[in-house]
Amino acid sequence: MTIFGIDYAWSHPSVSAMRSAGVKFVCRYLSHDASKNLDRAEADRLSDAGIWMVVVWETTAKRALSGKAGGADDAREAARQAKACGMPEDRPIYFAVDWDATPGQQDDINAYLDGAASVIGRDRVGLYGGYYPVKRALDAGKARWAWQTYAWSGGQWVGRAQIQQYRNGVQVGGADCDYDRAMEADYGQWRVGVTGGDDMPLSQEDIEKVAAETVKELLHARYNRRGHTVGLALETARDGIVELLTRTPDVDDDAIAAAALAGLTPEKIAAAIPEEAADQVAAALAARRSAAE
Q1: pLDDT less than 70: residues of the chain
Q2: Domain range summary for the chain, segments of one domain joined by +
């Protein structure tokens, strides 16, 4: 399963446009150009909307040729900006290699990554680039994280890259963006003060809204079909809850389902589904709650 995201610089889509497009995360810039950078206000808006963030440092395309000293300088400034945006200090920073880097340039790139690692730690060092510099850096152990673009890649993908940028020059809500997809559950994502791998408490409002809508849609579509049972409906609803409540990819799916079933009252779920099925669903939910206790 992949996770859909976008990246953008100066042209910002609205939160509502991103949610309508199904965007789950955004890749945002840190640099010396404040006009394209992520700032705290934007980070707060995205976090409030449930959209994850990752950050990439890029000033000039070939800055990564500046060696170890350049990498250390950039990592210090990138870490400062990221902290100001509310990024937890254990999350990675991707550093851009935004050109078709040759094998002969890899030593300088690796030295740049060494410099970054000397400031933020190797476990937080990521690399953005095409297939070859990404593969070479990962092979050499110079980066822990990788965001690969399809550019300069000849249709090849590095299987270890956590993020793929697979299409450029698209519009989301009238803003210029690129399409990305996360290939792993943990791709360096965060929200303000929250690490993507943390077990985050589910709000009762979220549980009730998503679970009720899932069960309502399910029963409208399937209630009168041959062989349908409320038990099957509840199992399918559980799967929907687990899929939709993706606050964090590392959370225990069974714990989410148990929380959802425990938190929903029969009255609330009955109000959200067809009247003819309400009593059966309420009874089934009550039975599950009793069994859980």
Answers
A1: 197-293
A2: 3-195, 204-292
What's 200's DSSP letter?
A: P
- Measured CA to CA in angstroms, residue 154 lies from 95, 157, 166, 182 at distances of 22, 9, 12, 20
> What span, in angstroms and rounded, lies between the C-alpha atoms of 82 and 54?
10
Instruction: Sort residue 67 into left (φ over 0), alpha (ψ -120 to 50) or beta.
Output: left
Task: Give the Cα separation of 106 and 275 in Å (integer).
Answer: 66
pLDDT one-digit tens code per residue, 208-254: 555 665 566 556 555 555 445 555 556 656 655 655 554 444 444 55
Q: What are the tens digits of pLDDT across the range 141-163? A: 999 999 999 999 999 999 999 99
CATH 3.30.160.160 at 3-195, yes or no: no
Q: What residues does 146 pair with on adjacent strands?
A: 127
User: In this structure, are residues 127 and 143 in contact, taking their beta carbons and an 8 Å threshold?
Assistant: yes
How does DSSP classify residue 251? S
Q: What are the DSSP E strand ranges found in 122-204?
A: 125-129, 145-149, 163-172, 175-182, 190-191, 194-195
Name the pTM for this structure: 0.70
Chain centroid, CA 173 distance in Å: 20
Dist CA 30 CA 177 (whole Å): 16
Distance CA 35, CA 12 (A): 11
Identify the burial level of 103 via C-beta atoms within 10 angstroms of its C-beta, where 0-12 means exposed, 13-18 middle and 19 or more buried: exposed
- List all residues 6 or more positions away from 290 whose beta carbon is below 8 Å from its beta carbon: none
